[in-house]
Amino acid sequence: MQASPDPGLIASAGAPQFIRIVTFLVDDRQFGVEVGLVREIKGWQETTPLPNTAHYVLGVLNLRGTVITVFDFKARLGLGRCAISRASVILVLDLGGQPVGLLVDAVSDIVDIPRTDLRPPPETHGVEEVLLGLAVRGERVIALPNLSSMIGFLPEAATSGSIQH
Q: Residue limits of the CheW-like domain (predicted)?
């Protein structure tokens, strides 16, 4: 049974007909976040571990005077740890004034997605906690993560951006 689209994913009057996302890879899985949330894309840098943190928190790093928490996106998805390589990057995101870093395997592209190509997450237990939705581009499906739920301390409005408006 096909789920009806989430009304938050459908363009409302006056909303742009496209969303622009930065796509990135974790293993062979493709994800995307709105370009407006991306503060910068940084090569891997060692972090300072913090005590008593979740397994997916790598630690913190000093980014030009701002201390940011870095999360292992793959570990947060329950897929093991990211293998750090020359292509590994930290996506530095500004989530409601809170800068955070996501360790990912590589950044792929910046793409414009028509709102008509946005789909709600599948009706599978727990998926709605991890995904805002899916962007369909031909044969490709790009997962749009629900960062507020995944990271846990961020305001919902900071991570949904225009995807849900």
A: 18-156
